[in-house]
Each structure stands twice: as C-alpha cells, then as structure tokens.
C-alpha cells in the first residue's frame, strides 16, 4: 500500500485540486515542477454546449462535435506549445469517444497524438493532456473518483478539461473540482461557434499572464526529469498514481 509524498510530475496548479481532494494536501510539489511552464495556463476547464450522439446506449458514449472541438484545439495549441518539443495526449472515459477522437485527429492531421481511455493512460504521462468527457446525459462511471484522479494527474505542463458539465454538478468530486476552477478563474463557458476561430474564442481565455509565460525556446530546452517517490503508508486505502 503506497501513498505519494513528493510529486515530481506536474505543475503545482495542475496538482492543486487533486492534492486537496484526494491527498488531503499532503503532497509536496518539488521545486522543479514550478518550471513546467508554457504560454498557456497550466490548468483550464472549458464548458461546451455540445451533446452526445443520439444513438448512444449501454455506455457506448460518443460526442462527435466535442471530438471535432478537441482536434481543432490540439491543432491550435500546437502553435503555442509546439508538438515538436512537447508530448500530447487525449484522454476520454469512453471507448466510442476514443474512436470519434481518433477520426477527428486524423482529419486534422494529428494522428500521431495518442488517444486512449482513462484506464489505458494509467501510469503514463504527457506534457499536454486534453480530457474529453463526451457524456452529457446521465453520469455513469464519470462518478468514479479514482478514474477522475488518474485522468487529472497525467499531464506535466498543461491540462485542459473539456465537456458539458451540467449533469456532473450532482457528483461531489466534480462539484468540488468545478467550484475550485471557478474560484481560480479557470472555468470558461464557450459558445457553440467557438470552433470557428480558436485563436480568438479560446486562446485568450487560457493564455497565461506575461509574468508566468515561458518562451517557446525555454519550453523546448526543458530537461527536468519526471519521477515519483513513494513511501509505505499505514492507511488501507490505495492512492491512485
């Protein structure tokens, strides 16, 4: 049974809510994690108006418009956090949404970006992670807080959470996460036509302030090694890593 003490993986702003909710603020951010900067904010929540496909049933959830949004977002982000120097990943809770995302990513010319489910991403990390919730009717296993913890703790430099979060306000963990994002001014409502020009509709909302912005060159040459230190704990509850 293990419990994390010091985290070396992610920027402190990404770690802030998981540390508070899952680890009782017992995690210590290694000093090097403050250097994991990009021109964008380390964490952002984008509330979308798109709804899941009409033919979804028995957990086979897909949201094609959200998948198209994510693909265009990746293409836009590439201009600010160059994929030449940074690793990207897209995570979704649902296998059918993974298929929709892979199709959208191919169309956008980014088939090299790994798209997979939360369970498949456990133990992995990327510099930039985009999460596509997909589901807009019911809750299903989006209420599973262990999966939520895994998804939120995969990125190193930048995490963008995308979805239509209306139904999730009823889930305590999600309500806490969304409330925290609002308090930190990291929660943004987007209009249906936000895909038309993301440089105008999205980037201004998620761009870091000048004081916290690292240049592309600095991002490209960052060589901080990511590792995790664990220690045996007396608790009987296993923390997700």
TrEMBL record:
<keyword id="KW-0547">Nucleotide-binding</keyword>
<dbReference type="GO" id="GO:0016787">
    <property type="term" value="F:hydrolase activity"/>
</dbReference>
<keyword id="KW-0378">Hydrolase</keyword>
<dbReference type="InterPro" id="IPR045055">
    <property type="entry name" value="DNA2/NAM7-like"/>
</dbReference>
<dbReference type="InterPro" id="IPR027417">
    <property type="entry name" value="P-loop_NTPase"/>
</dbReference>
<dbReference type="GO" id="GO:0006369">
    <property type="term" value="P:termination of RNA polymerase II transcription"/>
</dbReference>
<dbReference type="InterPro" id="IPR047187">
    <property type="entry name" value="SF1_C_Upf1"/>
</dbReference>
<dbReference type="GO" id="GO:0004386">
    <property type="term" value="F:helicase activity"/>
</dbReference>
<protein>
    <submittedName>
        <fullName>Putative helicase DDB G0274399</fullName>
    </submittedName>
</protein>
<dbReference type="GO" id="GO:0001147">
    <property type="term" value="F:transcription termination site sequence-specific DNA binding"/>
</dbReference>
<dbReference type="GO" id="GO:0016604">
    <property type="term" value="C:nuclear body"/>
</dbReference>
<keyword id="KW-0067">ATP-binding</keyword>
<dbReference type="GO" id="GO:0005524">
    <property type="term" value="F:ATP binding"/>
</dbReference>
<dbReference type="Pfam" id="PF13087">
    <property type="entry name" value="AAA_12"/>
</dbReference>
<keyword id="KW-0347">Helicase</keyword>
<feature type="domain" description="DNA2/NAM7 helicase-like C-terminal">
    <location>
        <begin position="3"/>
        <end position="164"/>
    </location>
</feature>
<dbReference type="InterPro" id="IPR041679">
    <property type="entry name" value="DNA2/NAM7-like_C"/>
</dbReference>
<dbReference type="GO" id="GO:0005694">
    <property type="term" value="C:chromosome"/>
</dbReference>
């Amino acid at each position: 049974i293990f419990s994390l003490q010091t985290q070396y993986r992610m920027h402190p702003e990404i770690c802030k809510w998981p540390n508070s909710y899952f680890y009782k603020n017992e995690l210590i951010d290694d000093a090097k994690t403050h250097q994991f900067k990009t021109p964008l904010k380390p964490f952002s929540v984008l509330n979308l108006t798109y709804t899941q496909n009409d033919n979804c049933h028995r957990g086979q959830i897909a949201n094609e418009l959200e998948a198209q949004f994510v693909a265009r977002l990746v293409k836009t982000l590439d201009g600010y956090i160059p994929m030449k120097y940074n690793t990207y990943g897209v995570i979704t809770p649902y296998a059918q949404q993974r298929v929709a995302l892979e199709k959208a990513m191919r169309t956008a010319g980014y088939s090299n970006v790994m798209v997979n489910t939360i369970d498949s991403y456990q133990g992995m990390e990327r510099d930039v992670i985009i999460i596509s919730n997909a589901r807009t009717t019911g809750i299903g296993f989006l209420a599973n807080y262990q999966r939520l913890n895994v998804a939120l703790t995969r990125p190193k430099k930048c995490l963008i959470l995308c979805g239509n979060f209306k139904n999730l306000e009823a889930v305590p963990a999600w309500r806490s996460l969304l409330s925290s994002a609002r308090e930190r001014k990291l929660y943004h409502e987007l209009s249906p036509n936000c895909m038309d020009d993301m440089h105008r509709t999205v980037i201004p909302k998620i761009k870091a302030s000048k004081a916290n912005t690292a240049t592309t060159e600095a991002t490209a040459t960052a060589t901080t090694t990511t590792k995790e230190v664990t220690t045996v704990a007396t608790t009987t509850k296993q923390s997700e890593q």
